[in-house]
Design a protein that fits this description.
It is a single chain. The protein has two domains: 241 residues, Alkaline Phosphatase, subunit A, CATH 3.40.720; 138 residues, no CATH class. By secondary structure, it is an alpha/beta fold. Helices cover 32% and strands 18% of the residues.
Amino acid sequence: MDIHALTRELNVKNDSKIVLLVADGLGGLPLAPGGKTELETARKPNLDALAKIGVQGGSIPVCPGISPGSGPGHLGLFGYDPIQYLIGRGALEATGIGFQMEPGDVAARGNFCTLDAAGKISDRRAGRIPSEESAPLAIRLREVKIPGYEIFVEPVKEHRFVVVFRGAGLAGAVKDTDPQATGVAPLLADATDGGSRKMADLANQWIAAATKLLAGEKKANGLTLRGFAARPKLPSYEEVYGLKAAAIAVYPMYKGLARLVGMEIVGKAQTLADQMDVLEANWKKYDFFFIHFKYTDSTGEDGNFDAKVKKIEELDSAVPRITALKPKVLIVTGDHSTPSYLKSHSWHPVPTLLVSDCCRPDGHATFGENTTVRGGLGQFEAKYLMTLALANAGRLAKYGA
């Protein structure tokens, strides 16, 4: 039976509150054998206090050995099989900023990058150019016109933007142009099936013209496109879990993910403190809260171990404001691991901590990779996290006679 068919059948309504606190890229590795990970190094008294009364384990985002993108990683946490529901990053970014994609549209997530004199990438994120500098550049790219098509360009945040292509016969099976490396030139857009050749050709025309417009810039003099995709159709949280769900996120992509599964985007938080304010202000209005914290991922991708430790400590400092609200279930996890050691997303199971008044505490006094390996939840596929949340919240009836 499909898991969502089962949750629909067993759904029980009550007044319980569930909080899913996602520290993006939470999992890590030690910098040397026998050392501590970022999570184990961080001073995190509040998370460790929760470990004493909770149960922990390792969440497998997709399947063993597969390193997920943020889209599949979050879909798994939300209870949607990331193999069955594959969503391109472009659709997530476009939806996240509120762009209304039409049937047949194809969206791609854009990154400004820095090109050297030979046209090779020296910085994949243009020095993480601030939004106030990148937004005018994204708007300038609207000047690029391709006869027969409508092309929309919207700023997102920092080095990111969205481009949406509209016209007859477009499909999104197109490879990324980001080589995920420096010292090499951006890739050409290449279709992975015959039906997407027109889209790949259109993307290459647009990229060539857009790059000419950026040629005089010092930092953002180039660009790459990732995650070509049309808007998908997913069943909502209300349909499959009976939950009125809220998302409290800063970055548009994660708002887009939340919107696609029927969550309401609440507040306009820009900091973690803002997010806690929004949570408190909306506590009585929703059953489920998804809170997204980005910076454990970006510091990991930068290979900055100490900075990631500090971001974990920052996250820990917000935990008392959540526990003061007395949620029936509180889950702390990540969508994937981003070890500073690797400077990238990885396949490692993600530390996950669940606290409720009916969980079985596993005797650990700290929260970290070594304790999650021996935790009571064991290693489990992320797509089952929502059934665990619902069960601990008393929102699932008995299955069968």
